[in-house]
Amino acid sequence: MEKKKATIRTFLKMKENGEKIVQLTAYDAIFARLAEAAGVDQILVGDSLGNTFLGYRDTTPVTMDDMIHHCRAVRRGAPNTFIIGDMPFLSYQLDLETTLRNAARFMQEADCDCVKLETTRAELPVIRRLVEVGIPVMAHIGLRPQTVKVAGGYRIAGKSEEAAAELRQLALDVQDAGAFAVVLECIPGELARQISESLTIPTIGIGAGIGCDGQVQVLTDVLGLSEFTPRHAKPYAGIGQTVREALAAYADEVRHQTFPTDANTF
Ligand code: KIV
Questions:
Q1: Catalytic residue flag (residue 161)
Q2: Global confidence as pTM
Q3: What percent of the chain has pLDDT over 90?
Q4: Could you tell me where in the chain the CATH 3.20.20.60 domains are found?
């Protein structure tokens, strides 16, 4: 039976009912198809595309064209899953018109269901305007990987009482601006729980503990494909090792002329 596509109302209902939301990143049609078959609730085409499949050190080189290309592939692989297009570095900070055009590309060219943007107070009017024109927005607060160069690395956010209070307020403000959900990245578990309890919209945690309304993880971390697994992640398979072994076996058989055999020959 074909899966019924979720909407933002589905996720608000899930929060009301205490059902956890499962979000996973994907960047191409093959893994999107597998994620849909596994029943994940939301696929995030994250700008983590940059530091995973594109081989950059961080997310800042990722362009709008990169994102649209990969979102389109993910949509082809997962036609019935809620897909989030991640707005890349500088695609939503220049001016409102450029932001609207870029967000519209995710919806019109790649058939995404919403956009996500790393959020500070400066983005509140942006969220308001996007929602006003009909583009659902997932906010993203706490650690913001697009500012890694200014922060001098990936640092846990909201550790001091002052920083925690700012995040508590920002979460309420993104909800007020019209975001339908908010990612909480790398903040203390107790703070994430308080924020989740204070909001009517769902929180999606990564490195923010069990008290969030859902979790997101990066595909390559979950599969054991990353060179380095961050503390907040858990590899559920060792695909990197499996692939290395399979490719080495293939190379070995070609070199020793044990592949192809008659069975592989026309
Ligand atoms: O790009 C991404 O994968 C993300 C998640 C870490 C939330 O933004």
A1: no
A2: 0.97
A3: 95
A4: 8-235
Q: Which residues lie with the beta carbon below 6 Å from any ligand 1 atom?
A: 25, 44, 46-48, 86, 140, 183, 185, 206, 216, 218
CA dist., res. 26 & res. 49, Å (int)? 8
Q: Whose CA is nearest to atom 1 of ligand 1?
A: 46
- pLDDT of residue 156 exceeding 90, the answer is yes
Split at pLDDT 50, 70, 90, the class of 1 is low
Query: Quick check: 232 and 186 in contact, CB under 8 A?
Result: yes
Q: Which residue intervals of 40-158 are DSSP H helices?
A: 64-77, 96-108, 124-133, 148-151
Share of the chain above pLDDT 70, in %: 99
Does domain 8-235 sit in CATH 3.90.1150.30? Answer: no
Predicted confidence (pLDDT) per residue in 129-138, tens digit? 999 999 999 9
Per-residue pLDDT for 92 more than 90? yes
Residues 163/120, Cβ–Cβ less than 8 Å: no
Alpha-carbon 57 to chain mean position: 17
Nearest residue (by CA) to ligand 1, atom 8, is: 46
Question: Of 97, 162, 185, 197, which is the active-site residue?
Answer: 185
What is the residue with the minimal CA distance to atom 2 of ligand 1?
Answer: 46
Distance 127 CA to ligand 1 centre (A): 18
